[in-house]
Amino acid sequence: MSRRFKRPALIIAVLLVLYALAGVFLVPALARSQAVGYLKEHYHLDLEIGKLRFNPFTFSVRIEKVNLKDPAGDELLAFESFGADFELRSLIDRALVFRSVKLERPYVHIHLRADGTVNLASAFASPPADPAVEEPASAPLALVIGDIALNGGDVHFTDNSQDRAFNQHFMPLDLHVQHFSTRPEDRSDLVGLSITIGGSGRLVVSGDLSAIPTRFDVRLAAHDIPLAIFQPYLEDRLPAEISAGALGFDLTLAQGQPGQASHMRVAGKAAVTGLEVRLKGRDDPVLAWDEVAANDVQLDLAPDRLAIREISIGGLDTSFRIYPDGRTNISEIVRQAREAGPESAKEPAAQATDSSAPAFQYALERIVISGSRLMYDDEQILPNVRVRIEDLAGGIAGIASAANAETTVALTGRVGEYGKAKIDGAARLAAPRQDLKAKVVFGNVELSSFSPYAGKFAGYTIDKGKLFLDLNYTLAGNRIRGENHAVFDQFELGDRVDSSDALNLPIKFALSLLRDREGRIEINLPVEGDVDSPGFKLGPLVVKALVNLVTRIVTAPFDFIAGMFGGGPEMEYAVFAPGDGVLSGAEREKILPLSRALAERPHLVVEVQGWADPDADAGALRQGKFDAMLAATGAPADSALVAAYDGFFGAGAAAELRAVYEARPGFAAGARSDLLMKLTAGIDAADPETVFRDALSGRLRAAQPVTDEELAALAYARGEQVMNLLINDGGVEAERVFVRRGEIARAGEGAKAKLILDTR
């Protein structure tokens, strides 16, 4: 080489060596020094850099073992290695262009403190600006990166703003982006973002996006994200613990489609599996399920609307439990949630609403339930009551915000081992009071499990029985109307139970009146009420109607029988003519329908108590004896009275009485003495002979003896008459009809027989 070219070549070589040395040694040293000093001076942060390499020819940067700590020595950021390959075409493109950027094992700690501040925001708060220096505003350079890779990341998130700290590592985190650009209308390809959550869960994001303007169309797929890790956020809000459960979803998110810059759409499906929620401090789960999945979900924002084709609920296991102190698991959740809520939630302030804003539109086509179970436990009653509804299946359809949308419910289930349950209903959610209908049917339900309730409120245990229940309710405005049709099959009460809450009613007698010959009790119980009334509750309303029904039955059993089987008024009384022991035709027709009731109520027996009136019946018996005495004389009618009188009072007694009367002044003229007037009161005859005969018959009739034994015998005969009617004409078994000893009537009883119903 000529001397002419050697010198420039040498200079160039020396410059290249110097450039290389500066790039390899000086630039990293200056960069390290400037970065460490700047962060220390302005932010009081300690930056440690293991290695920093710069290739001045390829413009590539490699940094290893970086650790950034706050003044307290807590680690904020760190990474194993960082590499960036800068491209010289940045000078031409007027942008920061990198061929690739790669970050290995990055770590970031995000700490939300108790006061609501965030460690990173506090650490990198902008230092006070120098008022004397004004930097001219300039448009930022666009950033273009051909390939971004982040591997093995760890996002450590700590939240001390809750009563119970949330502390989780989201790792490993992997990210791969191609063609990243902040230039307007450029789109980036998010090849994949993968984050492990809670050790077993995984979130994967992929799709494309643009930074300016913000637009994206990405897919989010997650599986097995453990819900228990979010328990700290429920700690001070609900007295419940998520002991198990995992979240999964497969969604697409799109925003900023052409012509719809503000529109966002979320579509896809989501599911929560293996959920188990328990009350704090208790072993019983209040809610659990195998899977709840929402399919074909579409949420649109601006305008706001939600559409879901189906929510499927499988293996739902929920319970309603009444604790010994009367509280329930549900009320405990509600109560503690209210107590734990913020003051603003307890006393909500009035907020202005934009009446012109369109209402949120929603539509859920159907909810499908399968293989589910509902448990009912009442620990307030001893022994405890436990009822379960299993194999609960069916669905709810038509849940929508549209004014004319009708929501329908159709569910079936199994009660206990062999019982059945069916629930049907319909309502318009936009106006539920206008036309709400509900029908609940229970069939073949074993009643023995409700024996503790029977002991508490009826005073007896339940030996056996099955329940068939048909409830129909409608709500129109504020009026609720219900038809309760219940059938108790082979329902038998057992032993007596001492209970202060038991009804003071003859329950067994009421059941015997209601139970037919097949052992079935059928009750139709209509109810009606005003749901706007203070303290309105449907349960007590039904109980009150049932108590009123039982009270009417046991206090007026014959009215109940007459209403079902016919019969005259006051069927419990058989009325007799004075002195007579034979029923009239009208009385027979009044009493005879009782035999039909006894045929249909085999557990009933009847007792008949005959009564005799000491006035009316005694007078009739004296008249009978008087007539028999006249007939026994065998004398002609004109002389029979004198003969009977002499036969009763002695020979010549009639003549002696005549002499007494004839001696009185005016007797021959027909004038009546005071004595005759008393003896012949009401007789207008002026003929002296007629007056005398009336005196004879009056004294003779009044003198006929009627004993209490005769009256009691008449009373007993009346009871026998009713008994014979029921047995011989009504076909009632003789062993079911009893006649009590005849009694002389008390005040108000009169000449009658009283029927009394009882149980075997």
Present the secondary structure layout.
Blueprint: H1 3-43, E1 46-55, E2 60-69, E3 75-86, H2 90-93, E4 95-104, E5 107-112, H3 119-123, E6 142-159, E7 166-181, E8 188-197, E9 201-210, E10 215-226, H4 232-235, E11 240-257, E12 260-279, E13 285-301, E14 305-314, E15 317-322, H5 329-340, H6 343-346, E16 361-378, E17 385-400, E18 407-415, E19 419-427, E20 436-446, H7 451-457, E21 460-476, E22 479-496, H8 507-514, E23 520-530, H9 538-555, H10 557-565, E24 573-575, H11 585-591, H12 593-600, E25 604-612, H13 616-633, H14 637-649, H15 653-662, H16 674-679, H17 688-702, H18 708-729, E26 737-739, E27 743-744, E28 752-759
Parallel strand pairs: 4-6, 5-6, 14-16, 15-16, 25-26, 25-27
Antiparallel strand pairs: 1-2, 2-3, 3-4, 3-5, 6-7, 7-8, 8-9, 9-10, 10-11, 11-12, 12-13, 13-14, 13-15, 16-17, 17-18, 18-19, 19-20, 20-21, 21-22, 22-23, 24-28, 25-28
Helix pairs in contact: 9-10, 10-12, 13-14, 13-17, 14-17
